[in-house]
Amino acid sequence: MGEARRREVRTARALLLLWTAAAIAFAFRRAPYDDERFSITLARDAGVRTFWRWLTGDYHPPWVALFDRLLVPLCHDARAINVARALASACAIALVGELAPRLGARRWMVVLAAFHPIVFMYGAAARWYPIAFLAESLRAWALWAGGEGEEISTRKRSAAFALGALLGVAACYFDAVLLGVDCLAWWLLARRERGEKRARSFATPLIALALAALTLAASPIFFDHLGSAIPRRLGMSSAYPLLAFVGSGLAGEAMLPPPWIAVALLALPGYAAALARPRSRSLTLWFAASAACWLLAAPFLDVLYPRYVLLPCLLAAAAVVGLALDRAAPRWARAAATGTCAWLAGGLLLTLGQHSFVKNDLNALTPETCAPILADSPELIVAPYPRTAEQIRAVCPGAPPIAAADWILHYTGGELAPIERAIGAAHDISLVEVPTGGSSLEDTNLAIEAGLAGRCAVQSSDLREPDPFARLKGEPSRYRYRITRYRCR
Q1: Are 242 and 291 in contact (CB under 8 A)?
Q2: What was the pLDDT predicted at 22?
Q3: Is residue 360 within 8 Å of 385, Cβ to Cβ?
Q4: What is the reported pTM?
Q5: How far is 207 from 212, CA to CA, in rounded Å?
Q6: Strand pairing of 402-403 and 380-382?
């Protein structure tokens, strides 16, 4: 290894250490959002029966949740989940760094691209996305690593591919579709680029598919999910969610408010210019096929969140960073890529600020909202969404006891029991809701309002923190918080 390459590797490692520390710090600083709260509750608080009952309604394999359930008691802190996810993402970024020459970039540029707002925010999230990110990166490394005089044995590639297949379906059912694309790519590359014989070229994909099938079949809830998810999911196609999925994946989930949101369009020319100059035609075709699977399936399977596809976000951003810093590239292409990098940097700053997310419940509660919540000194604050309850505790000094649901997404009477018990003993109550039309969170809000209506009278109602994206999303409420004061008998 020459001195220049050693220097590049050291730079990439230093940047990766910085990325890992920053992602963990950000995960610790923000309050967990709803899906993370679900994972934390399963790992830390749920009994065995509750654990499996909730997982049956979650439509994801149980293996990541089981790992978390072992990890949290061992470390005595639920934040260990964030640390483990950040380390998994760091491994994924390091693997993608090995593909840098095919992306027209260097290793350190790939790590720099990992500060893409989506990759940075969800790379340490307490969910399954970083595990799927690592799985897909293992398979990408097995397919595309090497070059510049570096030879990688077929045995190492096969082991990485098989491990990626196992981890992928252990994290997400839909990874089985992406695994099919990867198996086809393996067979084509084995035949055309590595010159393997036909029988041997089939061996690794078959082993990977067998491991994936065994992992799925070993799940005690797989067939429950298979029987209930398909009729529930089909027919969910909608143009807006698909556009939101693509747009937020390219530019991040935190945006400037309308009409300035149009500035995000600056990100598009750079992506187009970067992907139009492939160093490897086969890599570009593979990337396009994987992306097409997501885009075609997203509206029908409700796979509508860019956090599910961290690897494509990173690959595209790395190609853009490489183009922006390539002095041999045409000036117009470098300018377009620089514009994309500038927007992604702005999106990262908005993400760190936690006040410009299009998705309402991801935003942080501001201190100004504390005044109407604490007005007239209520005995009890009811915040159905646990994230809101945690934010009130952190932001509003002197807050009275706060009652929140055990869980939001798959609530039943049992999960609302803490709120029902607290309401029964209080007379002056402040109800703090996050209006989200059409979601399960709104169902929970309605259930609690109905319970309060039976013994309490509304004294006042206040809407706080205007939502600048409400009209764009078609939300009935134009505000982020609804604060209602009740006087109870």
Answers
A1: no
A2: 98
A3: no
A4: 0.90
A5: 9
A6: parallel
